[in-house]
Amino acid sequence: MSRLGSDNQAQGSSGEEAWIEVIQKMDLVYADLVHYQVELEEKNSALEEAQRFIESVQASMTDVLIVCDIQGRIQQANTALERITGRTARALLNHSFKELFAESSQVLVDGFADKIRSETVYDCEVNLISADGTPTPLAMNCSSRYDHEGRLVGMVLIGRPVGELRRAYEKLHATHKELKQAQEQLVHSEKMASLGRLVAGVAHELNNPISFVFGNMHALKRYGERITRYLDAIHAGVDGEALAAQRRELKIDHILSDIGSLIDGTLEGAERVSNIVQDLRRFSGNQQEDIKPFRLAPVVITAVDWVVKAARRKPEVRLEIPDELRAVGTKGLVHQILVNLVQNAIDVMEPMDDPRLVIRGWQDRDDVHIEVRDFGPGIPPADLMRVFDPFFTTKDVGKGTGLGLYISYGLANDQGGSLVASNHADGGAVFTLILRSV
User: Fold this and answer.
1) What is the pLDDT of residue 397?
2) Within a 10 A sphere around the Cβ of 319, how many other Cβ atoms?
3) Are 143 and 103 members of one domain?
């Protein structure tokens, strides 16, 4: 083969390789174009979906939405604005947002464009012109709008009809009032339930003085009949010897020596009944007492007696309350707190064969401490911060509302004191009521 023929063959082969390379590059470019086209279609679909989502959200908003540029020209509005103004978003496009507001609000809306450069306008009340020409009050917020480079490009106005806000507030206020009434009823029910548990103990407390008064009054009735007979004999002019005999027969001298103690005992019993009734009224009633000094020992003893005598399983109780210990507070409220604490301790120790209760009192500088300790299982550490929460209880359903300790905590605070829960190092729970000392 000649040299020229070889050169022509080499040039032909080189040309074919160049075309093949061009075709391969074209295939790669086309593949990239197809890939980019798919990505573009996916992003466009996602964009359309996001746009539909935004439009659906805007359409369902009850609040008015107005999007403006930096000059205050409307760029977008939602259905809520269309309903109030009677104008479509398309008709409002590129109009000044100020056209939507009544003359009385123009001074305020004029300042929106300047204020958004430095701050957000919160909850100013403006009047929007409704479809029938009447003003519709709105609680309006105005905030700045920025583009992707952080440049201020306009503002966003969101307004809620004030009437709707007022209705929502009134509904919230009514709900709060109902909730407060329900809570008061629950608290009162808990107090009455506690009072019901104490009825047996109180009945025993009342039975002793009432029986004493009842017996004394029968004796006084008999003495009165004998004295009447003796006085009748005196008025009838019975002679001295017969009168003396009748005096001995009727035991007038014994009556005269005994009648004073009978009257004193009757008065003491009546006073005891009166005190118990007053304690009951303080426990179950709503009357206000003054905060004043009082002796703690009688209040503690009465509270313990009421609960223990009504208990199915009576605990061994040890009282260590100095007789001279005095505190400043409301005696009825302190009595109620102690009743709740003792009742709670007895309930906790109900499964025990030998329940014990220790109640101590002492003065520490300007405070008086009354400690109620049971010998039950104690309080789990996780529950120590929750024992005073309303409706918190570890009792079975139907055996406790979880309001006793909550009420006691509030009563302690009401009179300037406090109530603290802890566990004893040797076992059992300890509740300490702290009051001001005299």
Assistant:
1) 44
2) 13
3) yes
- Same domain, residue pair 260 and 309: no
The answer to whether residues 196 and 235 belong to one domain is yes
The three-state secondary structure class of 259 is: helix
Q: In whole angstroms, what is the distance from residue 261 CA to residue 252 CA?
A: 15
Residues 264 and 307 in one domain: no
DSSP structure class, residue 147: -
Q: Is 311 part of any domain? A: yes
Phi-psi region of 322 (alpha: psi -120 to 50; beta: other; left: phi over 0): beta
Looking up tokens 């006691």 gives 408
- Joined together, the tokens standing for residue 264 give 């004193």
Cβ 412 vs Cβ 291: under 8 Å? no
Residue at 326: amino acid letter: R
For the chain, what is the domain count? 4
Does 250 lie in the same domain as 368? no
Sheet holding 152-161, edge to edge: 74-77, 64-69, 152-161, 135-146, 121-129
Owning domain of residue 222: 190-287
| Interatomic CA distance for residues 171 and 178, integer angstroms | 11
Q: Is 435 exposed, middle or buried (0-12, 13-18, 19+ CB in 10 A)?
A: buried
Calculate the CA 410 to chain-centre distance.
11
SS3 call for 129: strand
Last residue of a domain, one of 287, 306, 337: 287
Q: Which two tokens stand for residue 148?
A: 């992707």
125, 141, 152, 208, 227 from 118: Cα distances, Å:
20, 14, 11, 81, 102
> Do 345 and 427 contact (CB within 8 A), yes or no?
no
What CATH number is attached to the domain comprising 121? 3.30.450.20
pLDDT recorded at residue 398:
44
For 232-255, write each residue's pLDDT tens digit: 888 888 888 888 888 888 888 888
Strand partners, 74: 68
Beta strand residue intervals within 162-245, DSSP E:
none
429 and 335 together in one domain: yes
pLDDT digits (tens, 9 = 90+) for 114-168: 777 776 666 788 999 999 988 888 888 888 888 888 888 889 999 888 776 567 7
Are β-strands 152-161 and 64-69 bridged in parallel, bridged antiparallel, or unpaired? Answer: antiparallel
Reported as a single tens digit per residue, the pLDDT across 60-83 is: 677 899 999 988 899 999 888 998
User: Whole-angstrom Cα distance, residue 69 to residue 27?
Assistant: 46
Pick from 285, 387, 384: nearest CA to 344: 387
Closest CA to 435 of 371, 336, 351, 369: 369
Question: Taking a C-beta distance cutoff of 8 angstroms, is the pair 378, 429 a contact?
Answer: yes
